[in-house]
Amino acid sequence: MNFVEIAREMDSQDVLVGFRDEFVIDDPELIYLDGNSLGRLPKRTALLMREVVDRQWGERLVRGWSEGWVDLPRRVGAKIARLIGAQEDEVLVCDSTSINFYKLTMAALEVQSGRKQIVTDSGNFPSDVYLLQGCAKQFGHTIDIVEPEVVAAALNAQTALLTLSHVSFKSGFIQPMDILTKAAHEAGALTLWDLSHSVGAIPIDLNGAGADLAVGCTYKYLNGGPGAPAFLYVRKDLQEKLLNPIWGWFGQKNAFDFSLEYTPADGLQRFMAGTPPILSLAAVEYGVDLILEAGIDRLRAKSIRQTEFLIELWEAFLEPHGFTLNSPRDSRHRGSHVSFGHPDAFRIDQALIHDMNVVPDFRTPDNIRFGVTPISTTFTELVDAVLRTRRVVDDRLFEKYSAERAGVT
Length: 409
What we know:
By secondary structure, the chain is α/β, with parallel strands linked by helices. The protein has helices at residues 3-12, 43-57, 72-81, 97-111, 126-139, 177-186, 206-209, 278-294, 296-318, 345-355, 379-394; strands at 31-32, 91-93, 117-121, 142-146, 159-165, 190-194, 213-216, 231-234, 324-325, 337-341, 358-359, 361-363, 367-371. It has a seven-stranded mixed sheet with strand order 2-8-7-6-5-3-4, with helices on both faces.
């Protein structure tokens, strides 16, 4: 089978291929497969940043707040809402994912007084678990960390909160949001979903699933830029029932009355805290616009084709060299990245980056993640990446790299 010719034919038929030109790609030889960690820079965003800095900040100064800045958290949130099956007044862009996760966890545990169990799974992102540990210590809760396949069985009358990553950061496994949200509600628990590895890559229907709370980052598939502000979702009927534990200025009702007594704002606004970071917040909007223009259903369809093609390439070229498939084989249960396991995964990853001009990433203990970003990744790139990976192993190029890990992987 000539995979190169197949890839070229698939690229020629790709209805989304034109979106690749919307991104800054200075090195056409670079195969970038880490958009599930940091998305590419949209050309529109680069132009916008100059306008925001030179004119909005440079010329308009503090007047910029009343000329659009103060509306950014809600405006961009309303656009993200269209990607996650939420109403436009249920999503805010603010703070970091961790801070938003803390705010919503604490709010949920407070309103669920009397219930002392938190349930999550072993596939959850570690920082979410760290935050749960801190919140549980404050409220005296226990945390049950179970295997992904048996989450529902861990729910009981003591469960206050079920919180999961919608897509696992290591394997790409998709948790069934609708089924598990229903199970949690039947047990009397609230749900908090982390959408960081699913938003912009797969269709999400928070309202349809009846989800209570959610958070997510914007710098992966939404291409918002390094350290870009995150978003939070609070179902509309819960907004007046929950209280943000961080009593910040922008969450205060009538903030410019400068009262010394805190009164939470009405609705979603109460989940704001401090002053929004306007430069980085503005950078999020055009990345979201591109995903909306491409269409999440079309992006998901292409992602499935590309990840299935990548698994075919693994069978042909990498499995015979000792690589295992560490992601679900069934696309219904797989997000937009594919993890391959190998005993020398970290050193292979280093050789790919430094010798082969391929950028995936490594996740302990043995995962090389190939992140497929359908809005910009080509089928031809997938073939080249796998062939270069095989060469790293065939030529033992990885052996010159140490297995000792330091810094960002």
